Amino acid sequence: MEGHTKMLFILGLVAIASISEIYRVEGAGECGKNTTPDNEAIKLVPCASAAQDENASVSQSCCAQVKKFGQNPACLCAVLLSNTAKMSGVDPKVAITIPKRCNFANRPIGYKCGPYTLP
């Protein structure tokens, strides 16, 4: 069942990112000039389970991807709150706990992420 859920998650991310690319507006956003939070959300596929269930273990590949986004908290928040993430079943309240669950020492503690605060 978990393999099936992960495959649906991946297919959903690809479909949503493809659609969002059609409506992409040129300009520098939270994640830089040449990308969008929806496109960046695809990189968080290894975090599928961890972003939906706070009791799920967080894989090393997930932590590696989140660490890259952690260099830019605005991008991390935009990715976690993106349409791609929402439509893929990501629970923002759970997803924002991933940096803490990865035990990052230099995570953006207290950073306001929409209506949520990074722990």
Automatic annotation (TrEMBL):
Residues 1-27 form the signal peptide. The keyword Repeat does not apply. Coiled coil: none annotated. The keyword Signal applies. SUPFAM superfamilies: Bifunctional inhibitor/lipid-transfer protein/seed storage 2S albumin. Keywords: Signal. Gene3D superfamilies: Plant lipid-transfer and hydrophobic proteins (1.10.110.10). Residues 31-113 form the Bifunctional inhibitor/plant lipid transfer protein/seed storage helical domain. This is Bifunctional inhibitor/plant lipid transfer protein/seed storage helical domain-containing protein. The lineage of its organism: Eukaryota, Viridiplantae, Streptophyta, Embryophyta, Tracheophyta.
